[in-house]
Amino acid sequence: MKLTSPLVRRAALWSVAGFFVLAPGAIFVGAAHGANYNPTETSRRNSGTPNSSIVVKNKAGTVIEYGNKYITYTAPPAKLDNLGEALYMENCASCHGNQADGVPANGTTGAYPDLVGLGPATIDFWVDSGRMPATDPRAIEAPRRLPRLTPNQALAIAAWVNSLAPSLPLIPSPNLANANVSDGAALFALNCASCHTIEGDGDALASSTFSPSLRHIPAFQVVEAIRTGPANMPRFTGNLSDQQVDDVTQYVTTEIEHPNNPGGFGLGGLGPVAEGFVGLLLGVGVLVLVCYWIGERQ
Questions:
Q1: In the structure, what pLDDT confidence band is assigned to residue 131 with cuts at 50, 70 and 90?
Q2: Of 79, 222, 110, 57, whose CA–CA distance to 65 is shortest?
Q3: Which of 15, 60, 62, 176 matches a 20 to 30 Å C-alpha distance to 264?
Q4: How many CA atoms lie within 13 A of 50 on its CB side?
Q5: How far apart are CA 217 and CA 253, in angstroms?
Q6: 152: closest CA among 94, 100, 83?
Q7: Architecture of the CATH domain 54-256
Q8: How many helices (H) and strands (E) would you count in the chain?
Q9: What is the pTM of this model?
Q10: For residue range 32-88, what is the model confidence (pLDDT) as tens digits?
Q11: How far is CA 128 from CA 35, 222, 227, in A?
Q12: Mean pLDDT, to the nearest integer, of 16-37?
């Protein structure tokens, strides 16, 4: 059949162009979510809650471990409670209060966050990432820095705060051997890149806040951030399964931590637009010099 009409030919060209523009997006979204994805479903199995393949409780009926082959969540050992209380009183009580309820010694309610009921993963993330104890308690956003306390000390503080009101999520341990890095890249681009950039370098946000760089972060802290939603970050519990979180963690700790740069120089991971301008500047600049040299020879 011949397309003799200009209108028919134009429609055919637009159809082909539309396929190449829209099809990758459709494939991308389908790969990222899966056929049965439902962003409003919070009761799905293996979504960072005790609704998991494995659930372990102590004699009092409190959940002390849950998870699956992708991520295991474990409560801090109760034997760390005494150490955690001492460390908390020394490093945290001046702001969050002796009862971790956000009421400091001067009795100003609501001046600082209430920590009771946040879950040990939240407390561990803030302390072990160096954001707490804060260098400036009045800062709009606490930056990641070299931790003042050791990982075991951070875990001890999380254990004591959690003993006040046992809560979730528990401390995650991802099993990256079961992760799929290509699925993680798709999920990262869909859920994380808009703030952290596709290179994971972080970027400025509104009202003097920022999304931090994702480089040099241990795998369990990536999971803690995804499941607890620190600062301006949304909390991905219910809309991402443990398998998907495991995939994202694998991508962050491998491809972002050690970029491949298949095109050659990474140019600092500035992104395709900025890197395109650099390439254009260098390419056109070299061509101008070559043309000038040829003209001089003539």
A1: very high
A2: 57
A3: 176
A4: 13
A5: 7
A6: 83
A7: Orthogonal Bundle (1.10)
A8: 10, 6
A9: 0.76
A10: 333 333 333 456 788 888 888 899 999 999 999 999 999 999 999 999 999 999 999
A11: 37, 12, 16
A12: 37
- Distance of alpha carbon 265 from alpha carbon 267, whole angstroms: 5
Count how many residues are written for the chain.
298
Asked whether 179 and 249 are in contact (CB, 8 A), the reply is: yes
Give the Cα separation of 82 and 126 in Å (integer): 20
In whole angstroms, give the CA distance from residue 244 to residue 68: 13
Does an H or E element contain 208, and which?
A: none
CA distance 244 to 35: 14
Residue 54 pairs in a beta bridge with 67
Q: What residue has token string 């500035």?
A: 270
* 151-201 tens-digit pLDDT: 999 999 999 999 999 999 999 999 999 999 999 999 999 999 999 998 898
Distance in angstroms (rounded) separating the CA atoms of residues 208 and 139: 10
**For the chain, first and last CA: distance in Å?**
55
Query: What token pair was written down for 170?
Result: 């528990």
In the chain the beta strands, taken as DSSP E runs, fall at 54-57, 63-67, 71-74, 171-174, 203-204, 210-211
State yes or no: pLDDT of 1 exceeds 60: no
Query: Is 279's pLDDT higher than 80?
Result: no
**Residues linked to residue 72 through DSSP beta bridges, in sequence order:** 67, 173
The one-letter amino acid at 141: E
The token pair that represents 101 in the structure block: 């309820």
The closest alpha carbon to 213, from 229, 199, 194, 223, belongs to 199
